[in-house]
User: Which sequence fits this backbone?
């Protein structure tokens, strides 16, 4: 048989990877220790050394989520995998899911849950705000959902959803509480057990500074019990909690092959989690909050207006109203081209309306806050020389 | 709020990754160029450099599959993702799928397709054999499937499924042909366009020697058309062909965010594909076939019996009957402990019945064939000193 398709010339060029400062909503820059770990040799998916690394990661994830859940593991997928896996493990056809909508991720969860056959209801927060406990209570009483889905860190709007009291409310109404902590974990407190959260997942490439592609997730006994009482199989083999959980050794049964895990990503994630443990959660969170305050003060001094309400502001992703007459895309492109610094635009409901600046992991330092403020100011000035900064900002 | 779960001590130990020779059914050892690439800095999922690397990979995957399909891209998941994505994009509730069963992967595909609501039918090959064209024809005429699923390289049994003529048969019966090439691509010829295969996927961590976690996949115009005529949305957002394909720039529409791809895995895969292109497919395949012959000759000289029929033998994974009275697990464990060489046992229907030796990528060289033969012989001898090798083998 003749070979009709030739090898492409483009692959003869060397791999080109510039070093950038990733101050968008993620991924963040991975520290050298994480990058170096990923150049280590490949291991098999059932080798004892691999299983040991997985056990280390499980222990670390339990600390990060502040949980003792046995069913704590990772999915071999991006953060979207966490959203899919929580929804499809806990929902069956016709089940009512209530989605707290504070931005783009609410829409995404609604799309996924619809595909899984659920009866999807939304409760929408007002712009730039989170949902207050009474709003959540009313929505639960109205819709009587079997699952409530909330996004703790809504990266499209920069809104942080408060969670205290929601778990108890859900238990009183026989509802499971699922929380997306992709953009928030490590930057703001999250107490899975104390807050009675039934299922949660996070992103590896945000505060943790590991590469994307592997997603920590945890289910408590109520979520496991809901799974056990399913009438139908989970619709996706790849997301099936018991199958993945058995591979991760979560249920006291023999560890069996489910899929071929990426040892490379395990190495990177393990080192990233180890660094978070060394720093400790309270310090990690305080560092992100301090840096966010410095960033917000700097932005205000430039005369810019933040999008999220002050009480609901996420430390890890800051959203800034695009001032009238300014082309956000030009600013973002100028910052990248001139300084190799990432400053992002909006996403979903905030597309074209906001800038987004991320402070995550290694990028949450005073130096990098000052750097991104400087780059932001210079880029706005370059794109729109007549932009009217207040006097305090022009002295920066 | 009090922090009740402490940071685990295990994460204070340094990351331990031994260097092993991976002569099982995969993953194989990644070459240094691939490993070094993965220590490069993280890039954002929509940065132009990332999109360029994705374009390079697309071009390389088209060459590897020997296809001009526009809808050629990768999934951010292990090879299982390829199986899930082909099935759930091309099947709707009640559709008949016919699965050619030559081992474990047929069972896995049946499990997945059942979860997606398909009407699953199996046609089983006899032990150690592939399905002949007349058997496939009869099964198609009997079941009238809308999708036929075949595994070209059945890694559990070491059987290679012939594909020539199957595509035409499927077209004549308005059936789509899906082929799993996870364990075969690059080790045995595969001509996606010439053989009229409608959807195919492969593994990154086998012949290519990239890390697991990213899965090349391709759909032709017939598969895309089937997607277009769906009555219902694809059940899984993460596997949705049009959403992932748009992110990969396959359909001439603007590239939009679908998920956060792992730049690390892209770097590794790009370099692995570049190396395959530099060697060329015909040379790569010839190298695997030559090494397989050397391995098979060596095993026969040891008096061992191969599991797969000679005409159906896969070059990349060789299955060997476990001789009576020999404990396969002891042999495998001895080889690993003493020599850091991986020799695997069976999987699914061959569990406990066979050894599996893989020759993939960098491990398909005469030196490594001789090494694994030596280690295999010595391990058998160590575990069972009275094992009766033929005279020719004891001279090795």
Assistant:
């Amino acid at each position: 048989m003749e070979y009709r398709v030739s090898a492409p010339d483009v692959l003869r060029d060397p791999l080109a990877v510039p070093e950038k400062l990733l101050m968008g909503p993620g991924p963040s820059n991975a520290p050298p220790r994480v990058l170096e770990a990923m150049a280590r040799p490949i291991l098999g998916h059932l080798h004892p050394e691999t299983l040991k690394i997985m056990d280390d990661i499980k222990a670390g994830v339990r600390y990060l989520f502040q949980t003792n859940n046995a069913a704590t593991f990772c999915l071999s997928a991006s953060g979207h995998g966490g959203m899919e896996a929580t929804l499809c493990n806990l929902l069956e056809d016709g089940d009512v899911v209530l989605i707290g909508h504070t931005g783009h991720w609410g829409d995404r969860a609604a799309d996924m849950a619809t595909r899984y056959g659920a009866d999807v209801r939304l409760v929408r927060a007002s712009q730039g705000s989170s949902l207050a406990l009474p709003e959540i209570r009313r929505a639960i009483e109205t819709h009587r959902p079997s699952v409530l889905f909330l996004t703790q860190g809504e990266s499209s709007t920069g809104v942080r959803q408060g969670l205290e009291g929601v778990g108890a409310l859900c238990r009183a109404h026989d509802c499971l509480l699922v929380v997306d902590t992709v953009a928030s974990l490590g930057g703001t407190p999250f107490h899975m057990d104390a807050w009675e959260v039934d299922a949660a997942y996070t992103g590896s490439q945000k505060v943790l500074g590991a590469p994307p592609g592997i997603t920590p997730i945890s289910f408590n006994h109520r979520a496991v019990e809901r799974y056990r009482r399913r009438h139908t199989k989970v619709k996706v083999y790849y997301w099936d909690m018991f199958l993945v959980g058995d591979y991760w050794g979560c249920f006291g049964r023999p560890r069996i092959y489910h899929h071929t895990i990426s040892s490379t990503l395990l190495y990177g994630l393990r080192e990233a989690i180890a660094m978070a443990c060394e720093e400790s959660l309270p310090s990690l969170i305080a560092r992100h909050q301090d840096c966010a305050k410095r960033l917000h003060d700097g932005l205000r001094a430039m005369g810019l207006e933040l999008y999220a309400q002050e009480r609901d502001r996420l430390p890890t992703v800051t959203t800034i109203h695009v001032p009238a007459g300014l082309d956000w895309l030009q600013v973002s492109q100028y910052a990248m081209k001139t300084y190799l610094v990432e400053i992002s635009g909006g996403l979903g409901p905030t597309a074209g309306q906001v800038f987004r600046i991320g402070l995550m992991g290694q990028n949450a330092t005073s130096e990098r806050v000052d750097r991104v403020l400087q780059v932001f100011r210079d880029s706005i000035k370059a794109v729109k020389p007549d932009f009217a900064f207040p006097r305090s900002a022009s002295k920066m």
Notes: Chain A has two domains: 32-277, 280-383. The CA atoms of residues 79 and 254 of chain A lie 27 Å apart. The longest helix of chain A spans residues 281-301.
